[in-house]
Amino acid sequence: MALLSLDNLDVAYGNVQALRGVSLTVGDREMVALLGANGAGKTTTLRTISGLIAPRTGTITFDGEPIAGRPAHELVARGLAHLPEGRDLFAPLTVEENLRYGYWTKRRDKSGYATQLDRVMDHFPRLRERRRQAAGTLSGGEQQMLGVARALMSSPRLLLVDELSLGLAPMIVEQLFEILKQVNGEGTAILLVEQFVHMSLSNTDRAYVLAKGEVALEGRSDELLADPQLIASYLGEQELEAANATGASAAPAPAPRRRSRSRS
Ligand SMILES: Nc1ncnc2c1ncn2[C@@H]1O[C@H](COP(=O)(O)OP(=O)(O)OP(=O)(O)O)[C@@H](O)[C@H]1O
Ligand SMILES: [Mg+2]
Questions:
Q1: Which sign, positive or negative, has the C-alpha torsion 70, 188, 179, 231?
Q2: Cβ contacts of residue 141 below 8 Å, gap of 6+?
Q3: Is 211 near ligand 1, meaning CB less than 6 Å away?
Q4: Going by CA atoms, what residue is nearest to atom 9 of ligand 1?
Q5: For a pocket test of ligand 1, which of 9, 10, 13 has the largest count of ligand atoms closer than 8 A to its C-beta?
Q6: Is residue 84 part of a domain?
Q7: Is residue 255 predicted with pLDDT exceeding 80?
Q8: Is the pTM of this model over 0.70?
């Protein structure tokens, strides 16, 4: 059974329908990309999973239990961590104080804290060096690292990541992806929202493409990667250029499953 499954989710902000009949799954230890143009509903999907928005209809199952409508703090305790869009670190607090907060969101015994801090810091030598520095004075890339590190302090089974790449140079984004792959390799499932399509598909097992609040396309990432034109038709010209620039392979692959009735 999937670790996370969304079934036929509808979400609206007042009269604005943001998600229509969204269904997706993330398997245990799987790394899945959620792609889509601006406004497609990616952030809304993650916020709904982590209990910040209540769906109008549909079900969300995490680890075998229905979780739609459960409060966010309860979901953290069950093993769900969310790294939101933008940086919501406590800027005046130090790196270590931010990490301690991440640990206490799950409220476990004090004795485990030092071990967990050490484990997480092993992924982030740059943060270890800067542990007493105020979070607000870190570089953009270091702040994103801290965001990931803070989410990992709660030992999540599933990590939701929204636009890790925002405002960062591609080289830094690649380093962050490397870290996410390590974390995934150690057993944390990841659902990743990204604008860097090529990098996302190169680093994930499967992907979903949202268009106007619906799942328009889903498939294995390597298969989607082999057909940049197909993805570009959902994501716009900019992404097509990016995919071409990176020289994505044109090798034939089985066609990914298309779900939408119309391609817009
Ligand atoms: N708080 C809100 N109130 C009203 N409408 C909202 C709200 N948040 C999002 N929306 C609308 O819902 C739709 C989906 O937004 P969402 O933020 O999920 O998109 P996204 O795929 O994350 O886009 P981006 O790539 O720009 O981050 C958009 O049309 C947006 O305008
Ligand atoms: Mg968003």
A1: negative
A2: 168, 169, 172, 175, 176
A3: no
A4: 44
A5: 13
A6: no
A7: no
A8: yes
pLDDT digits (tens, 9 = 90+) for 6-21: 999 999 999 999 999 9
Give 122's contacts (C-beta < 8 A, 6+ positions apart).
Answer: none
Average pLDDT rounded to a whole number, residues 158-183 = 91
Q: Is the CB of 41 under 6 A from ligand 1?
A: yes
209 lines ligand 1 (CB under 6 A): no
Together in a domain, 24 and 62: yes
Round to whole Å and give the CA distance between 71 and 83: 16
**Residue 171 domain-assigned?**
yes
pLDDT digits (tens, 9 = 90+) for 201-225: 999 999 999 999 999 999 999 999 9
Q: Number of structural domains, the chain?
A: 2
| Nearest CA owner, ligand 1 atom 2 | 13
Q: Which domain holds residue 146?
A: 89-155
| Cβ of 18 less than 6 Å from ligand 1 | yes
Which ligand has an atom closest to residue 22 CA? 1
